[in-house]
Design goal:
By secondary structure, the protein is α+β, with helices and mostly antiparallel strands. The protein has 12 helices and 15 strands. The chain has 2 domains: 296 residues, no CATH class; 101 residues, Pdz3 Domain. α2 packs across α9, α3 crosses α6 and α3 packs antiparallel against α10.
């Protein structure tokens, strides 16, 4: 993001997955007193909680075995597990670093292609671990890997540029400044599409095929469904009195209208519960009567989807698949962001900072390497969406100020007012970021196990 006329660097919120997603923005104070474009790709991201409630604990082992387990815990993870954990965390962190690099490169390329003076390109914040100078630009890798920034010498008195230099960012026409400010978001959108395209041509795009019947994901113990012999994972293929291929709403309506009446279910069962063979059963269930007088059998019902992968046969098919997946993920990200703001009291717990995002990414990397494609795409899309919000210290806030200037006929907003607006935004984002980092760190599994 572009943070004009302020002595601060912003690190961006990043995902997921998803969805994504948070998304959290991190802003760290800087000692540089000039205009900077910063990339906070770790942001309040509405990510799904990583695992359901655990099952009841098994009975405790004998005392001697308990002592052995305690000694093993003190020694830490076995070398193979430790290596796998380190590799998965490194994979997630690399994804985030690449997203930061792409975002900042968008700002940098847009500025230099228009002949605008740039003084710094940094990945990370704080003291430089490594740096070099190429022409007038200093490139640096810094110690705190929570974002990055592109520095402009507009407010640096030691830059040697005259205040009215036409190639300073603040002196450029509105279209040039709009391009530079929005280029980070554009770069992330392009990067997200390329990631999805790469997924399509390598491992395929995941799709859900709708099969016949209604799936029973869960059965409440002791319920009418459990008493009838219905099991989680069963598929209800037909019900007398309903359509040949019943939908979830039709089946729910039939059950509600049949309290204390026998309902025959034609069920398909497969997997371990059926001895690894597919079985077709006729089960009779008598719905209980709920408090409102309708029938209920105590099950969760859902459409019968099966996850598959589509592998394109040529570049044209890969492009079509990538466009479709890009639109689907983008829509999911925007919907998640909308739900976050409309139902903030219910969704606040799902807003994740960089610690939680890396933890989710590491879990994705451990479960399936190709899952990193979706994780990276979702984080890119989340970052783009968050940065377009018209909030101070974000790209969207800077765009709003530039558009306001254009609406005023080119009359610039007083620098002091602009500085105060950005300062308030940076302070707010810094407070939110620190809160999320602390909260997400305390929620890490290995922290909980040792507290």
């Amino acid at each position: 993001c572009i943070n004009p006329h302020h002595t601060a660097m912003a690190n961006k919120p990043a995902t997921p997955p998803s969805s994504q997603g948070c998304q959290i923005i991190h802003f760290l104070p800087s000692h540089h007193d000039y205009l900077q474009a910063t990339t906070p790709p770790l942001f309040p991201l509405p990510l799904p909680r990583r695992r359901p409630a655990p099952p009841p604990p098994p009975p405790p082992p004998p005392p001697r075995q308990q002592a052995l387990l305690r000694r093993r815990r003190r020694r830490g993870l076995p070398p193979s597990d430790l290596l796998a954990s380190v590799q998965s965390v490194a994979s997630a962190a690399s994804v985030l670093a690449s997203i930061v690099l792409v975002h900042e490169s968008g700002h940098f390329v847009a500025a230099t292609s228009r002949g605008i003076h740039v003084s710094q390109f940094s990945i990370g914040f704080g003291p430089a671990l490594a740096s070099f100078r190429l022409g007038a630009v200093e490139y640096a890798l810094r110690a705190i890997p929570l974002g990055g920034y592109v520095g402009f010498p507009d407010d640096d008195p030691e830059s040697g540029f005259a205040p009215d230099d036409p190639d300073l960012l603040r002196n450029r026409p509105v279209p040039d400044r709009l391009l530079v400010v929005s280029a980070g978001v554009i770069a992330n959108l392009i990067f997200a599409f390329l990631i999805i395209y790469a997924q399509a041509v390598t491992v395929g795009v995941p799709v859900q095929a709708l099969l016949s019947g209604v799936l029973v994901p869960d059965v409440v113990p002791g319920s009418a469904a459990a008493r009838s012999g219905l099991l989680a994972g069963d598929v209800i293929l037909a019900v007398p009195g309903a359509a040949p291929d019943p939908s979830v709403p039709a089946l729910v309506d039939l059950i509600k209208s049949s309290p204390n009446k026998k309902v025959l279910l034609k069920v398909s069962r497969a997997g371990p519960a059926a001895g690894d063979k597919q079985q077709f059963l006729d089960l009779t269930v008598v719905p209980d009567t709920s408090v409102d007088g309708t029938g209920r059998i105590g099950v969760q019902l859902s459409p019968n989807y099966r996850a598959t992968r589509v592998h394109p046969r040529n570049a044209s098919e890969a492009t079509v698949l990538a466009v479709r997946e890009f639109r689907a993920l983008g829509g999911a990200v925007l919907d998640g962001l909308r739900q976050t703001f409309l139902n903030f009291s219910q969704t606040a717990e799902k807003v994740s900072g960089p610690v939680a995002i890396i933890a989710v990414g590491a879990e994705v990397a451990r479960s399936s390497a190709d899952g990193l494609f979706q994780f990276a795409a979702i984080i890119n899309l989340n970052l783009a969406a968050i940065n377009l919000l018209p909030l101070p210290a974000l790209d969207g806030g800077t765009l709003a100020l530039i558009l306001l200037e254009a609406a005023r006929g080119g009359q610039k907003i007083p620098r002091e007012i602009e500085r105060r607006i950005m300062s308030s935004g940076i302070l707010l984002v810094l407070m939110v970021s620190m809160f999320l980092i602390v909260r997400d760190t305390l929620n890490l599994d290995f922290i909980k196990q040792n507290m």
